[in-house]
Records
---
Amino acid sequence: MNLSLDLMLQLAIILPILSSFAIIAAGRYPNLRESVTITTCLILIYLVVNLYQGLLADETISVFWWELLPGLNVSFDIEPLGMLFALIASFLWLVTTCYAIGYMRSHNEKNQTRFYVCFAIAIGAVIGLAFSANLFTLFIFYEVLTLSTYPLVTHAGTEKAKQGGRTYLGILLTTSIVLFLLAIVGTWFVAGTLDFKLGGIFSDDVSIFVASALLVLFIFGIGKAAIMPFHRWLPAAMVAPTPVSSLLHAVAVVKAGVFTVLKVCVFIFGLDLLAILPTTQFLLYLAAASVLLASIVAMRQDNLKARLAYSTVSQLGYITIGALLATSTGVVGSSMHIAMHAFGKITLFFCAGAILVSLHKSKISEMVGIGKQMPITMAAFFIASLSIIGVPPTGGTWSKWYLMMGALETEQFIIMMVLMLSSLLNIAYLLPIPFHAFFPNLTAFKPIEQGASKVIQEKQKIDAGSDIQIKEAPLPSLIAIVVTALGCLILFVHPQPLFELATSVLTGRG
Amino acid sequence: MIAHLPILQVVIPLMAAPICLILNRSKLAWLFALIVSGVSCLVSILLLQQVMTTGVISYELGGWQAPWGIEYRIDELNALMLLIISAISTIVLFAAPKSIDKEIVKGKHTYFYVLYLLSLTGMLGIVATGDAFNVFVFLEITSLSAYALIAMGKKKQAVWASFQYLVMGTIGATFILIGIGLMYQMTGTLNMQDLSQRLPEVAQTRTVFTAFAFVIVGVCLKLAMFPLHLWLPNAYAYAPSIVTSFFSATSTKVAIYLLIRFTFSVFGLSFSFTTVPLQTLFMTLGLVGIFVASISAIYQHNIKHLFAYSSIAQIGYMIVGFSISSVAGLTATLLHLFNHALMKSAIFLALAAVAYRVGNVRLDSLRGLGRQMPLTMAAIVIGGLSLIGVPLTVGFVSKWYLLSALIEQGWWPVAVLILLGSMLAVIYVWKVVEVAYFKEPVGTPVKEAPIGFLIPIWILVLANVYFGIDTRFSVQVAQAAAESLFGGAL
């Protein structure tokens, strides 16, 4: 096919949304429906990879759709950071779809058509958000993403799902409409434009007070970045089916949040202005507090998905910190962490879902000794945990390295301390899970107190019945788990393309 | 023919109303009313086109010259209002026959159409005329037919609601009449254009102040501004659904038109906003109205009540925009006037469909309707999202303008309050959504609304989205109207 790059850019946004109609039409035939989704995934990846090559070839790819209000355009433009995000989202969508086929069917979920439809729309919104050329366009897709994921969060339709959905929508809409929108209108009024521009759009004589206030509004307003105290929606969203939690609430939605934070810091404020704003320091400490507190809360969760959710809140704080450090190293670290954390966390969620499907277990205290039943899953869990912690041989090493370097460069020693301490906490709340799974007799690692008695019971059960069968997740799901876990390893050995994208964020085109 | 458009706009429905009575067959009367309303809509489109290209149209009734005879004066603002009223009336009428079959006693169907056309006449007349006394006459035509229409509701409360409205409405109309009388006494003229030139000479007299106070209070009663809103929720809730759909989109809007017309054109900007402390007063009342009405909406069990309170809150936004008294603020008000007409008519028409199938619109009876009436409920959801102000709906456009207008003046705290107010909309809209989509259905299952409902509902819903994406038309007209009002005032 000889499509122009501009056309591909538009297709990449429209295609997932259009595919939702095809999915509805094929709703009665599950196999056809899923092949529609998979085909769309593949075409999307093809488009995004082509765009990536276009970006590498230094081509200008931008599209203007229409003028919504005088001076406010809906338009798109490709730059490295957005490319990075789009690549991850489109690739992981394919993997997640594969996983979802296994998960949703063996879990006998209802309303699967609605599930795939909303999923496709959400991905379309993510791609649109990633390629937005201005803050206004980004805001539109930001809201579309919130609304399209609401039916996914409340998928189960139970009272608990309804409550979770309330929190989800309540916090995300409140922050975005009250704070984010206000910040956008304020920026529009002060700067006269909303176009993303390297180095920022504020003129030099902008009042420091106004800019500081806007920064605070932005950081709090971008609720998807889950900075405490606006993080409650993320644990609440865990009532959703696991594929949703893994792609949307470990990758797409939360990364859309931190991506927006990065975009605002680099392309609206500019690092020079950001560095001299008095509120930057305050927000930095707030993000650091978020990192630590979320890790501590994560340790106290017995539900695996809840623990992973709090871990995500904590890791998102890293990315916000990297952006607020206002140095190029910090931005590189943050950009890379978007990718590294995506691969690590999606694997962890996949594993959590696999355990739920095969063994019907969702509590960590019940997962002692399951390594024998699900060796592949738990090995993947182990690798992904290492990546989240940030030790070789996994990709997470690199991003944490750059974040540390950024903190060191700016002499933010408190931030350094926090990052190191948090890594320790990561070890404490992630590694015991695979250890207990593989070595049930290792009493030295006691899980949390309230689960202790259950652990003993579980162990007795295991001792009693030694003829344990291997009971892995359905094949499509297992493939997905292996792919993402390998991804964590490959990103360690071969981080070069990712690194180049991340460094070119600050220099303009790839 | 083209030259006579302003009068045709009013005369066609006026003449048509009694003909309905002669037709005396429900379906026939409906078809006739629909055609008449459609023609009105066509006339208003032509008028708007003419105004946008050639400027203000002045039409002298019976050839009598302006200050003595009655003048019909159409500028951008009037033309926009005429279009809103006649277009909504036409779309709503599409769904009328089914709905009134259920909600109005058989023998009264022709009366319904007669009254409907009369109230349409009245509203169009209020907007088209440039004569202050004529405003009062048409206001009474609308009000009287409205009282009767509301009383046609099947429930006993309808009569009581209509009586409440009658008392309040009559007080309002009387106040307006007193105000107009006082103005006439001071200036000897009733033509608005003429009044605006003569009033400044006598502006410092107590009589003019009194006239201003009477007119403003009277108009505010009509537009249900907090705290003069008490008649509205019951009137909306117990009126037949079609009437609610039509009135929610038009009647309060006409009153807002009058407010703008009297303050900006007749009394003049400097008198209304500098001599009288209207700004502080309206800003406060508008904001309090937003919060009180939104919170009341949250606690309603009848969905028509719920959205009626939401209407009062939305009127608060218009009042806030109005009180900024800048071109941007007025543009925001006019945009919201147009946009809110689209949202509320869509929502109330969808509720009419619910009432048609389920029989009532209590929150409880909505259980499980998300599955049983998916298209109707989707319409309510989209209308609700528009109320909240989600991007790509019309609600976002007017909110953006209102925010920009506030920030332009440096009123950040008010901007924050406005946004918090829209969060309350999230709560009451989601209350409806949760019941419709998460509760198990009770009682006998119902079918999707008939196509006669779905078409007009979805025309309105798509308009909500279309004008939220392509804002050229609405923004251009609203801006032109606001600028011409300020041009006239400066």
Note: The two ends of chain A are 24 Å apart (CA to CA).
---
Amino acid sequence: MTTATPRRRGLARFVPAVAAVLGLSLVLTACGGGDDEGGSGDGGGDLSVTFLPKNLGNPYFDASSTGGKAAVEEFGGTFKEVGPSESTPDSQVSYINTLTQQGVGAIAISANDPEAIGDALQEARDAGTKVVTFDSDTNPEYRDLFVSQADAQGIATKQVELIAKAIGDEGKIAILSASANATNQNEWIKLMEEDLAANHPNIELVETVYGDDDDQTSFDKTAALLQKHSDLKGIISPTTVGIAAAARYLSDSQYKGKVALTGLGTPDQMREYVKDGTVGSFALWSPEDLGYLTAFAAKALIDGDIKGDEGDTFEAGKLGEYTVGADNTVILGDPLEFNKDNIDDFNF
Amino acid sequence: MTSLIHPSDTSTQQRARTYRDHQRPLWQRVLFSRDVAVWAALVVVYLYASATVPFFDRPITITYLLLDVAPILLIALPMTLVIITGEIDLSVASTVALASVSFGVLYDKGAPIVLAAVAALLVGVVCGAFNGFLVTVVGLPSLAVTIGTLALYRGIAVGLLGTTAITDFPDGWTDWARGRIGESDIPSIMIPFAVLAIAFIILLHFTAFGRGVYAIGLSEGAARFSGIRVERTKLILFVLAGAVSALAGIYYTLRYGSARGDNANGMELQVIAAVLLGGVSIFGGRGALPGVIAGVLLIGAIGSALRLADQTADVINIVTGLLLVVSVVGSSVLGWISSKRRRRGAPEPQHDSTGSGTTGSGQTEPGNTLTDTDGPVGERERDDR
């Protein structure tokens, strides 16, 4: 009775082998057609630009890739987007390696870690691929160019301008920030304080509180602010988590429409509060334009029009001409203002 | 499953005791093993991808592949032994992170890098020993214990460094971690891996300790009664898992030049998936290291091929997930079917000759039908795993 078993057990043991081959061949066949067209990337100078966001399935990066794709199609290159499912420090490395092997023209990457992906990017550049970082930079030695969403001064001035408009340029305001040691936010707050002192003498900044970029903490801090300062006229929240939590608190409270709120937010988060009148206007750079500019910067690098040095200039389609600034950085420009008139035009 | 060695199902008269598997000649046992199947799958996937995926056939693919899977390869070695005893260690990736952070913080505070590395290894040993203590001395299930320490070690790692990273490691060390052996395409990390792999293969497959590991997995009670020091064995294995995870953590830190609390997030599942794909039974008692090494490489090769074919991370996850499910479910379903057939066929020996006429040694022995009253039960249960 045991005679039949060796063969059957042999069969059972080969299940993984069969499964592996079948599964892989199915997937590869399914995508086979696309490969042949796309696999052109051996020589230098080809206009294939691959976007590698922090992670896929993130509306912000979906928007930047949309802009990048539009730009690449405009100048007749090949667009591709790849990326990890989680934004862990090392998760982009294997994708960078893959792109190095494929010899793409340029990688446009938003870095999950300024150092961890550096070595892989260096290898890509050694192989002739141009590297442009956008949104989130690596250490400068690992990339040719960084496309920054906005400069700190522009962001600070815009928010002060919006709150001044909302409260009639006088009264008490407060700031609801991210964490107490958040580099970006602290820089903006410092610039806003300077701007207020110099140009808006009737506005008094009474307190800065920190919601740690946590929804519930930000919500509670908003409540505490309003109880403590009964004559508060407005709140600036220069972080997307903070402004959404503050808007949620205000929209259900007696302060709705009485206390102004502005800051940096995304249209999808804020749409509801803009429409019900809790928030008049807020600001953010356009991730689509960021992707668009990044793609054109990549093209200029591939074509050899620029090297990424300070003072280089290049054309960026509908956005016009840009000049590379200090630290090989290109700045997108002033943030966009969103209000009830234009918010439905944006989807991120 | 209650015994590693079966009372004979062939012939008690002729041979007093025998492994059922040993009824077949050696070449068959080797050729039809799960290990060989996984290696075969690896070779087929590699050849197929080389033929169909652009750029896959370049030598650099192997370099990147080995660099990517190196930490998983390292941790899979002790993990195999842990799972063969019927336990599991989910805290390995968190140990990687804690060792990485300890290494980075100590170095940053001015300790010599060798001292920092040794301290990080000690941290791994302590992590493993703590797991082992809770499992063997306190007697808690390893699944619950290591889910707890998964969160605990990760929490300490993130707490120590917050969201900052330490990136300032000496170039000599990071270059080595990213480097290759001489002019070849094989990364340098494969040297320590090869040494460890040989050590673990000897430990598991050629020592009394290793036989004890299998015995514990098959039946802890029987192992205890036959004089195996179950608790000591398990404790040693958890400590080994912690130590090797810490080694992987140091390598990880140097390779990416970055010590962060969220390093190697989720790696425990990649390790366990590879170990199971390599033919180790999650119930313990079965599996071998060569198959596990092939399992790790197979998952890595599939990921690499799919990335080169411009598939997204989701597709890669789906394919490796399906592969794992199919291989685990498939082999137990086939095992179940064959045990059904065997049970049905048991009373009449001639029925079996229709299945496969030529193999096996004890084809028509009269002792067969006489002694198999308990034999098939043991067989069936072993197969069902």
Note: The two ends of chain A are 66 Å apart (CA to CA).
